[in-house]
């Protein structure tokens, strides 16, 4: 090996992952050190990434990775590093220089064949991805149709849906009478587990409150189900457990789609004042405390993630008190998702809020972990902020939610 070739390879080894990624025109996120994206070789969606701090790259689809720019370039371009030609071609890519005259090169025929293989793989992966997307869209629409069926089959809360009104009153939500959005199912199955043939098992069946998840067009994309047992305070929900493990099961479930939607509780979404938080009971209790204002639309997001959306990874921070052991058993601070929203996220990564809303009151839960909840509420306010819109965050008493406060105070 000539001195010129040795120096050429050593220069390539000195190129950082970040420098090579820029030369190769790979995609950089706006912030952070981890940069996921479709693999230039395997073309899988977000299966390839490189880390500019750790000096590493990885392709989950190909099951390969490394800690140098040469290997990253070889993978992306389909080059074989075991051959002299493949090694020098990869070095040429990261240096953005021609191979020295005495170095081995791919023949024009070999280069054309390699490029053809990459293009054929890209076309096949595009076709596979399109087929998967169609299949997922079909499955999602079927689930949405099932959710709409459950909701539409339930009775409006009023004369026929009295147990829902009784449940909400017992949970501190006042006397709601009729409700436009909430419905009642007298005998709704609770499916859990499978039989010996792999078919779903009906673990329980009983009365339930059914509420829709709606999108901006006010069409149901899913439904939220709460099973009821008015003889079992303080939650007034049945106690269900896994027959094999004895593990207690949630008495609330969601069908269809939740992402980006919200649960309407009371009022008209066309008004300019909206009030809501995570759960149905908290939003309903606050609505009762306000006297179900006619100028207000009350809603629930379903959970904190749907209320606030994903966080900017660079805003993560160490919890001031909570710790957990690492792999070596050393207690380390728990890392918390931060108060800043993730940039360039999709519109349905969190619940929607209509553009005409001028006051958005966000209800926090005082019985959830305080630091994590506070960061999420700040993130929700930042995500939903618009010029001319005010977004106060209202907290209940520490250790309580609004529903429990209402029950204990009798208001």
Describe this structure in words.
It is a single chain. By secondary structure, this protein is an alpha+beta fold. Among the domains are: 3-106, Alpha-Beta Complex (DNA Primase, Chain A); 258-411, Dna Topoisomerase Vi A Subunit, Chain: A, domain 2, CATH 3.40.1360. Helix content is 32%, strand content 25%. It has ten helices and 18 strands. The strands form five sheets. It has a five-stranded antiparallel beta sheet with strand order 5-6-7-8-11. A hairpin with a 5-residue loop joins strand 7 and strand 8. Helix 1 (3-13) packs across helix 4, helix 2 packs parallel to helix 3 and helix 3 (69-77) packs across helix 4 (84-95). It is elongated.
Layout of helices and strands:
Elements: H1 3-13, H2 17-23, E1 34-37, E2 48-51, E3 56-59, E4 64-66, H3 69-77, H4 84-95, H5 108-153, E5 155-157, H6 162-170, E6 179-194, E7 200-214, E8 220-227, E9 240-241, E10 248-249, E11 252-256, E12 263-266, E13 273-277, H7 280-290, E14 296-300, H8 304-308, E15 317-325, E16 331-336, E17 359-363, H9 370-384, E18 393-394, H10 402-409
Parallel strand pairs: 13-14, 13-17, 17-18
Antiparallel strand pairs: 1-2, 2-3, 3-4, 5-6, 6-7, 7-8, 8-11, 9-10, 12-14, 15-16
Helix pairs in contact: 1-4, 2-3, 3-4
